[in-house]
Amino acid sequence: MTLLTAKSISKTYREKVAVNHIDLTVKEGQLIAFLGPNGAGKSTTINMLTGLIQTTSGEIRLAGLDPKQKEYHHKIGVVFQNSVLDGQLTVQQNIQNRARMYKNIDLDFENQLIDDFGLTTILDQRYDTLSGGQRRRVDIARALVHQPDLLFLDEPSTGLDIQTRKVIWGTLEKLRETRGLTIILTTHYLEEAEEADFVYVIDHGEVIAHDTVKQLKEDYAQNLLTIESENKDAVLAEIDSSWSVVQEKGSLLIKVPNEHDAIDFLQRVEPLITHFEFRHGNMDDIFMALTGKEIR
Ligand SMILES: Nc1ncnc2c1ncn2[C@@H]1O[C@H](COP(=O)(O)OP(=O)(O)OP(=O)(O)O)[C@@H](O)[C@H]1O
């Protein structure tokens, strides 16, 4: 079922068009990624969807609600790029101040969040004494305390180590499975976009592609098998006629549909080759194919 729609939303600052007629559809339980370079318009889009800034034009609806309505804000949780928590207060005080803003807070759920995000031992520590990774875990737990349907994460993993990312994504994954939590994130981390059900590729305030990761890969980022051989003609004779092949600096660059085909092929030509490399198509390729620029 559709949870959120944005119809032709735009944001203009004087003559600067930050977001230009973007359409979005988000279904319940989806993980959606906004992928784009610095200044593409991702944060501006999120800020409109969270009601932090008003649209210049267009319409946003979340379960029939408008961002100006109070109920809209009960249904969302937001984690901004820069934390908005009070540094003078402890972790517990920050979380409880947030919880007090809502009726019917489920204490068991709150305690589970504290546990899942590994905050138990730092509950009494002042927020401004925490490390970046600890802060981010508190930010996310606080944004979830009222059990929102939709969580917005603006660049959630920036500056975080692998361990912290694992804790965060493990917990978010659990909430998706158990409660059908919907998530919209912006990211420069390709592996985060790779996990998404649906990706909006944004550049210069516009959606330049929107599709599943699988389809985007098929269209713009194919798997590449690079082969070196003393006997290229014999290798070429073995290549499926539907695969595209380019010869570059003595190597054969072969676009293969999937890794199983690559393995079958490699087994057939093994005696003929001196070196090979297999690379999965990735989001960098997608961005390069769409814009001619590498993602920054
Ligand atoms: N308050 C503002 N006044 C004027 N221009 C703005 C304002 N906020 C954003 N912009 C401009 O709008 C464009 C989009 O910015 P936005 O922050 O949405 O990009 P982004 O994709 O989130 O970038 P990043 O990945 O660096 O966070 C940029 O050119 C930015 O300078």
Name of the CATH architecture of the largest domain: 3-Layer(aba) Sandwich
Task: Kindly report the name of the CATH homologous superfamily of the largest domain.
Answer: P-loop containing nucleotide triphosphate hydrolases
How many discrete domains? 2
* Helix/sheet category: alpha/beta
Topology pattern, helix = H, strand = E: EEEHEHEHHHEHEHEEHEHEEHEH
Beta-strand content bin: 25-35%
Spell out which ligands are present: adenosine-5'-triphosphate
Strand order of the largest sheet: 5-6-7-3-8-9
What average pLDDT do the residues reach?
92
The third-level CATH topology of the largest domain is Rossmann fold
How much helical structure, as a percent, in the residues?
Answer: 25-40%
Largest sheet: 6 strands, mixed
Distance between the termini: 34 Å
